[in-house]
Design goal:
Length: 146
């Protein structure tokens, strides 16, 4: 995995995509993520929010992460435009669900052959959309209770 340079820090252009091992590295991350979702007791609730067959979920998360990390926008090519909160609007996501999702992602990230500094960067960065999903879910439920 390549380290960023002073001219291209993580989050700039495709530097994060390269640090993650490009599409092959993202695919490995996603496989590990769903393996942990199947195995971790804390993830039972979020696992039940998915179909039994995770093939489509794997494809969507891989495509999303490739684009989110600055690589090719496979998500738009395969599935059209995306809004992460809107894609999860049918689910009730609170702190426990967000934290379970992040626990699976953390376990998966720690398995990757990435530089430690990139692992830390990635986990801080991925917490942002995870929390946006939670906030949108909370707001949506509050609005429906009015």
């Amino acid at each position: 995995m390549r380290e960023p340079t002073a001219a291209r820090p993580y989050g700039d252009g495709a530097s994060s995509f390269a640090a993650a091992g490009e599409e092959q590295g993202v695919t490995c991350l996603v496989e590990a993520f769903y393996r942990h979702m199947d195995a971790l007791p804390v993830a039972q609730t979020i696992r039940s929010m998915h179909e039994a067959d995770l093939q489509l979920s794997r494809a969507k998360l891989t495509a999303f992460l490739c684009a989110w990390l600055g690589g090719p926008n496979r998500y738009a090519e395969l599935f059209g435009p995306i809004s992460i909160p809107a894609a999860h609007q049918h689910l009730a996501i609170d702190e426990a669900e967000r934290d379970a999702w992040l626990a699976c992602m953390t376990a998966a990230v720690h398995e990757q052959p990435w530089a430690e500094i990139f692992k830390h960067y990635f986990l801080r960065a991925i917490a942002v959309p995870a929390n946006r999903v939670r906030l949108a879910s909370v707001a949506r439920r509050a609005a429906s209770e009015r």
